[in-house]
Amino acid sequence: MQPIYKEIQRFRYPWLIVAINLVWVLAFSISIFEGKPNIILLMGAGLVVSNIFLLTTKLRVTITEEQIHLKFGIFQDTISMEQIESFEVNKLSWWTYGIGYRLSPFTKTTAYIMEGSTQVKLHLTKGSVVVFSTKNSTACIHALQQLGLSMGMSFASAKGKST
Predict the structure, then answer these.
(1) DSSP β-ladder status, 109-113 and 100-104
(2) Which residues neighbour 135 within 8 Å (Cβ) at sequence distance 6 or greater?
(3) Left if phi > 0, otherwise alpha if psi is -120 to 50, otherwise beta: which for 33?
(4) Alpha-carbon radius of gyration of the chain
(5) ∠ at Cα 155 (152, 160), nearest 5°?
(6) Predicted confidence band at 130 (pLDDT cuts at 50, 70, 90)?
(7) I need a labelling partner for 89 at 20 to 30 A (CA). Which of 23, 24, 56, 120 fits?
(8) How would you list the strands of the sheet with 129-134, edge to edge?
(9) Whole-angstrom Cα distance, residue 83 to residue 55?
């Protein structure tokens, strides 16, 4: 199925990569100073793995006529349009969701946040919420509106309107 909207977001926070590397190097240096070879190997492996993860992980957002597919590393969600009760677009709140994949069973919220200044919040029929970041909110909103959705409007009522 041909996507209506597709976006790939990469990790673009060099200051965070530098900060994480500094913490690893500090811990690595302490391990060397104390002469603990097992910890030295573990710290070196941790440094390599964290850098590979940060530099290769992407958030992929794909909207087709039937579903929204979100993929962040090994985490992914496929949401059919019938599951969407409504959606809203807001300024991205870094303090609320952070960066990466978040699953909160208390608020029934799943978040896929990488970069961009806007978040799309999907309210699903089962009472849960899926949030994802976007760099191009105009194109994303346009894609959702092409499917008959308008902000705050359910897919079911939009579908019923066209028949």
Answers:
(1) antiparallel
(2) 7, 9, 115, 116, 117, 118
(3) alpha
(4) 20
(5) 115
(6) very high
(7) 56
(8) 84-91, 118-124, 129-134, 109-113, 100-104
(9) 33
The residue behind tokens 């208390």 is 106
Residue entry with tokens 């509106």: 145
Pair 143, 137: CB distance under 8 Å: no
Q: Is 112 helix (H, G, I), strand (E, B) or coil?
A: strand
pTM for this entry: 0.75
User: Residue 112, Cβ neighbours under 10 Å: how many?
Assistant: 25
CA–CA separation, 118 vs 116, rounded Å? 6
Cα dihedral value 13, 14, 18, 23, nearest 10: 10
Could you tell me the two tokens for 70? 């979100």
